[in-house]
Every structure is written in C-alpha cells, then in structure tokens.
Amino acid sequence: MTSRYSTLPASHRDLLERPTFAHLATVRPDGSPQSSVMWFGWDGERARFTLTRTRQKFANLEHEPRVAFSVHEPGNPYRTLEVRGVVESVADDTADAAFYRALQERYDNVYDITDADVRIVVTIRPTKFIAVENGSVVRPE
Known about the structure:
Layout: H1 14-17, E1 22-27, E2 33-38, E3 41-42, E4 47-52, H2 56-63, E5 66-73, E6 76-92, H3 98-106, E7 119-133, E8 136-138
Antiparallel strand pairs: 1-2, 1-5, 3-4, 4-7, 5-6, 6-7, 7-8
C-alpha cells in the first residue's frame, strides 16, 4: 500500500528544482541529531548532496542511512517541503569534483575546490514528502 505522502506534490516540486538551500538532518553515532545547511541537486526522483569523507556528516550517514531534509520558499518561509529518505548510494566524486562544480554553478558560487580527493556524492531516495503551505499540510494530487 502506498502512503499518501510517498508522492511529491506538484505544488512544491519547484522547491527541489530551484537552487534552494536544504537543511539536511542526520543522526550522530551517539543518537543525537545533526542538521546542516547544504546545497543539493534534484534529478526528478533522487536528491544528491556532496560532502567529504573526513567530516562528521559522513560518519553519521555510515552509522544511520535514514535522513531528512527540508527546504522553504526563499520569499515565503511558510511554504515548506520536508523530504524523508534513505541513503541509496555513496560514490566518490570524479577526480575534478565534477558534481561539486555543478552545484557551485547551480548556486552561482564558483571557487577553487581544494578537497576533491575526499569529496563524495550521496544519493538520497525519498520515502516521504510533507508539503506545507501557510501552516497546512498539502495533500498530494
């Protein structure tokens, strides 16, 4: 049986397609939460984030692959989308950190990449979407 929240509401799809900032929440090995503001990419089905193997966020994902992230309309913080999901894959970024460079261009903030050798791409498969408009949950079509 499919949950009524397993489908991304069309009304909030743009929040993933545009370069909004995601608040990615993971669980630390001691069970406490950690949330970080991050860039992300969306291919219509999966979200992709980049981080490094040397940071706490990576250790968190190795410990617990379930995550959640939220985004909001930049001009209207009462229009939000929460995405819950699971890490589907972790892969090295290319030698020149091509995915990270693509995110820099998406967010119009290009600079030298000094950590390409430890940079990874984390792919998240969404399992639940919760869209909110002015305090009310938006039901998927």
